[in-house]
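Deliverable D5.2: sample structural annotation.
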Amino acid sequence: MLDPKHVINNADQLAALYGDVAEVSQKKEIDFIHPLYQALIQASPFAVLATSGDGGLDASPRGDAPGFVQVQDEKTLLLPERRGNNRVDSLRNLLTDPRVALFFMIPGVGETLRVNGRATITVEPELMERFAVKGKPPKCVLVIEVEKVFFQCARAIKRSRLWDEQATQPAATLPSAGTILAALSNGSVDAKRYDDELPGRQQDTLY
């Protein structure tokens, strides 16, 4: 059990622990998509979408060609929702709580971009066609009203060595998707068969 005297549970304690917010950290936060922030979004092929709702919290990956999240204007982002495993945890959350947070990453770049706002789910035909890939539209599109934008410094990326090829973990040293599913399903999933079929299945269902 944690000793209560060592637990941080109020803002004054946090301020004493970390000190004042640096002036530059305050100045980088704005409520619209500055052209320089737009350049980061257009270069990003990967983002994490965070939501909260009746089903709990969710943070899940989104990825496609760089710029797959489009800047409609300085207050609006458009995020196509592609096919997946049909859990749609993020979308279910948005039905009861429209708040979202996006975390954009660019391979090889230490700085990341954070965007907070509120999302609406739409299947408006023009938008669906606009985001079609290989003739296949997304399942829906999130129209995100931007409320806060700021870049995150590179410390976490540097500490993790995320883009350092020498720090790459060989996939063969980790449990495969099939191995995990076989264990969690008490053997009802054939691990080898699942792993053998997975690359082709993923490629065939990207869009």
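Annotation notes: The mean pLDDT is 96. The domain at 4-160 is CATH 2.30.110.10 (Pnp Oxidase; Chain A).
The annotation will be released with the project's public dataset once the embargo ends.
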